[in-house]
Amino acid sequence: MTALSLCLSCLLQAIALLVIANGAPVLVNNLLGKRWAWPVDNGVKLRDGRRLLGDSKTWRGLCSAIFFTLTAALLSGLDVLTGLLFGALAMTGDLLTSFIKRRTGCVESSRARGLDTLPESLLPVLVLKQPLALSLIDIVLAVTLFFLIEEWISPVLYRLHLRQRPY
Fold first, then answer.
1. Which pLDDT score, from 0 to 100, does residue 147 have?
2. Taking the model in full, what pTM does it have?
3. Do residues 121 and 133 touch, judged by C-beta distance below 8 A?
4. What φ, ψ does residue 111 adopt, rounded to 5°?
5. Is 127 left (phi over 0), alpha (psi -120 to 50) or beta?
6. What's the Cα-to-Cα distance from 93 to each of 98, 156, 160, rounded to whole Å?
């Protein structure tokens, strides 16, 4: 397989893992409400007076994303380490986005089109391109399709009362 070839099943697997990693915290939040929702940053504020990450980034969300991504990866034939790393890298990208948004003065859970999906989708597919058998085209398509899925699905999830905001 060349660097420019496309593996449809590999691409679909990567997109499914991205959706699971990023959807698990939302679904678990809807099921559990505020129970066990301890903020990752423990309320820490930096010199700029803003929270490091904010209340919406919780250990429960982080653990649920990693657990459900790991489970999905195992069910799809990937090894434990790939599943574990995929979930952890997706959440690392999500935490990085929150950190950047807090530093730029964005309100918690506010929309930053592109920034909201780029780190959390690019980081896992780029780092795990070999175990996922992804080409450069697959990576670009996975990130782009994940962005489009987020754009289209978020308003639907809001109407179903699964998200607090329509984005």
1. 92
2. 0.86
3. no
4. -90, 135
5. alpha
6. 9, 24, 26
Query: For 118-153, how does the pLDDT look when each residue is reduced to its tens digit (9 = 90+)?
Result: 899 999 999 999 999 999 999 999 999 999 888 887
Q: Which residues of 27-55 are buried (b: 16+ CB within 10 A; e: fewer)?
A: ebbeeeeeeebebbbeeeeeeeebbbbbe
Say how far apart CA 7 and CA 9 lie, in whole Å: 6
Q: How far apart are CA 115 and CA 112, in angstroms?
A: 5
Q: Which two tokens stand for residue 76?
A: 């799809």
User: Which residues contact residue 76 at a Cβ distance below 8 angstroms, ignoring those fewer than 6 apart?
Assistant: 13, 16, 17
DSSP 3-state of 117: coil
Which residue is listed with tokens 């599943």? 83
Nearest to 122 by CA among 94, 154, 80, 151: 94
Among the residues of 57-135, which ranges form H helices?
A: 59-75, 80-103, 118-127
Q: What confidence tens digit (pLDDT) does each residue in 2-47 have?
A: 545 578 899 999 999 999 999 999 899 989 988 999 999 998 999 9
Domain residue ranges of the chain, discontinuous segments joined by +: 8-155
